[in-house]
Amino acid sequence: MVNYVMDPAVLRPLVPRGVELDLWQGEALVSMVGFLFLDTRVLGVPIPFHRDFEEVNLRFYVRRETPEGWRRGVIFVREIVPRWAIASLARGLYNEPYLACPMRHHLTAGTCEYGWHFAGRWNSLSAEFRGEPVLLGEGSAEEFIFEHYWGYTRLRDGSTAEYQVEHPRWRAWTAENPRLEGDMTALYGAEFAQALGRAPVSAFLAEGSAISVRKGAGVRGGGGGTSNIERPTVSTSSRS
């Protein structure tokens, strides 16, 4: 997870109704995230040849106030996966901005790299790490980045959908020498490419865990209503 400061004015038009930007020490952050999904199941059923796969996404952070308190979540700008069927299923279930591209990854004892082929070239996200992972510190930048357990997306009719992501607290390494290489303008547009071209403010590598993504529900009203969150739609384990 490689994290950059972003102009809030660029992000606000992407924020759906009922939620607001969640800032870290007064700044809006975007994250380039590489995941390796393992043993993925949809409604408890494994799909042959679609259980283990990479994903690279660009996301930013929001929150929604409910009677139970703040729900901290993420909005995805774009999510890249290697198979058309995965992208189509995710768009259908969650109306998320998925894109299918050829992908690859490389993991050694001290380096992690994800690659995707888009606009006629290979792009990559990589970093180095050493030592042992540690639990996220209370109030730390790592905790802010990782501890967002809700997803939000704008539906085609202009309303907002909310879904819950469940996983235990992760252990993480502070990554070294993070690198993002490729044509970010073609993928995300000039304003995002400008932010992603600057030096990142932080980078982390998490060891991952079992994850459940529950079926979404609508956000009622301006942000105070609660949602009915049902049983897991997608379950998987991950390495990020």
What does this structure look like?
- A hairpin with a 2-residue loop joins strand 9 (111-118) and strand 10 (121-128).
- This protein is 14% helix and 50% strand.
- It has a 7-stranded mixed β-barrel.
- It has a single domain, classed as Acetoacetate decarboxylase-like (Beta Barrel).
- With 240 residues, the protein is mainly beta.
Detail the topology: elements first, then pairings.
Layout: E1 2-6, H1 8-11, E2 20-21, E3 28-42, E4 45-46, E5 53-66, E6 69-81, H2 84-94, E7 98-100, E8 103-107, E9 111-118, E10 121-128, E11 134-135, H3 141-146, E12 150-154, E13 160-166, E14 171-174, E15 176-181, H4 184-188, H5 190-196, E16 202-206, E17 210-214, E18 217-218, E19 232-239
Parallel strand pairs: 6-7, 6-12
Antiparallel strand pairs: 1-3, 1-16, 2-5, 3-4, 3-5, 3-19, 5-6, 8-9, 9-10, 10-15, 11-14, 12-13, 13-17, 13-18, 14-16, 17-19
Structure described in brief:
This is DUF2071 domain-containing protein. Pfam families: DUF2071. The chain has 240 residues and is mainly beta.
Basic shape: globular
Report the CATH C-level class.
Mainly Beta
Order of helices and strands: EHEEEEEHEEEEEHEEEEHHEEEE
Query: What class do helices, strands and sheet pairing give?
Result: mainly beta
Strand order of the largest sheet: 3-5-6-12-13-17-19
Query: Count of helices?
Result: 5
The CATH architecture would be Beta Barrel
Helical content class: 10-25%
Number of domains: 1
CATH topology, which one?
Acetoacetate decarboxylase-like
Main sheet specs: 7 strands, mixed, barrel
Relative strand content: over 45%
CATH superfamily: Acetoacetate decarboxylase-like
Radius of gyration: 17 Å
